[in-house]
Amino acid sequence: MVTHFVVIAYIALGGFLAWRWPRLIWPHLGFAAWGLVQITGLVECPLTWLENWGRAHAGANGLKPGGFIDTYIEGVVYPAEYVGLVRWLVIGLIVVSWAWVLRAQLGRPQRSTA
């Protein structure tokens, strides 16, 4: 469960870490792409599968059909009717963070290879 929270937080806010550590933009691109795939619902998240496996072996019920977000976040952190708005806000956060990283990279002096 903690790993799920960390991954979701990194998807939403990881681009801002790249403001300080620019090389983090590359793993963030991968995580953000994975987040985009996940919201389409075409593929189950391996963390959801792993959590359901652990819950089953502990004798507990699995996550709701929508996975981690539907179980722990939607309707708890924000009302369920705002799912679309929250998704667009997260996408906006990602785009702003990437734009800032790009702006910073374009403004840096080029290193000499000589």
- Assign a percent range to the helix content: 55-70%
Shape: elongated
Q: Give me the Rg, rounded.
A: 17 Å
Quickly count the domains: 1
Ranges where pLDDT stays below 50 over 5 or more residues in a row are: none
Number of strand elements: 0
What's the tally of helices? 5
Beta-strand level of the residues, as a percent range? under 5%
End-to-end separation in angstroms reads 49 Å
- Describe the sheet with the most strands: none
The pLDDT mean sits at 86
Structural class: mainly alpha
H/E series, N to C?
A: HHHHH
Keywords: Membrane, Transmembrane, Transmembrane helix
Transmembrane segments: 6-22, 85-102
Organism: Acrocarpospora phusangensis
Protein name: DUF2784 domain-containing protein
Features:
114 residues; mainly alpha; 5 helices; 0% strand; elongated
Please provide a brief summary of the model:
With 114 residues, this protein is mainly α.
How would you characterize this protein structure?
This protein has 114 residues and is mostly helical. The protein is built from 5 helices and no strands. Helices cover 68% and strands 0% of the residues. The radius of gyration is 17 Å and the shape is elongated. The relative contact order is 0.15. The mean pLDDT is 86.
